[in-house]
């Protein structure tokens, strides 16, 4: 009798688990669609990607991910190999360098959606090191654009390459 009750509980547990999974699937799909909309919207606001077609921007967005950061959290550190570009979706970040004795020099603050940082280490092939730190100064959300996809998007876009070169020379 006890074995029958136990098997019944196991079967009921499986049924409930399957129903829960089925109910959860649309929710995760909706969250994924929301993230995708945030990513596409953020890339649309970014002047780097302003000349892209909607299709090219959608294709790039499919490789990007959102990242949430708390105030004080580092997105990247000076000297690390740069593997991604960051585009601000909300919040704020500061770009700064640290000298050998630990003193910080703030180079820029980004607090408007569509502003970007980390472009210097991803604009060329090969392992380029970060020239500065990037830290959230308030709770922040960024779109992470992987280097490989950024370079692929940049390859056919002469205007994007020109803007990046000009910006690099100013820094």
Please state roughly what percent of the residues sit in beta strands, choosing from under 5%, 5-15%, 15-25%, 25-35%, 35-45% or over 45%: 25-35%
Radius of gyration: 22 Å
- The helix-and-strand class reads alpha+beta
Number of helices: 4
Strand tally, please? 6
Shape type: globular
**How far apart are the termini?**
78 Å
- The residue fraction in helices comes out at 40-55%
Global mean pLDDT = 81
Low-confidence stretches: 2-13, 15-31
Largest sheet: 6 strands, antiparallel
| N-to-C order of helices and strands | HHEEEEEEHH
Short description:
By secondary structure, the chain is α+β, with helices and mostly antiparallel strands. The chain has 4 helices and 6 strands. The model is unreliable at 2-13 and 15-31 (pLDDT under 50).
Word description of this protein:
By secondary structure, the protein is an alpha+beta fold. It is built from 4 helices and 6 strands, in the order ααββββββαα. The protein has helices at 2-45, 54-61, 147-154, 158-170, and strands at residues 65-69, 74-76, 84-98, 104-110, 116-117, 133-146. A hairpin with a 5-residue loop joins strand 3 and strand 4. The longest helix has 44 residues, at 2-45. The protein is globular. The model is unreliable at 2-13 and 15-31 (pLDDT under 50).
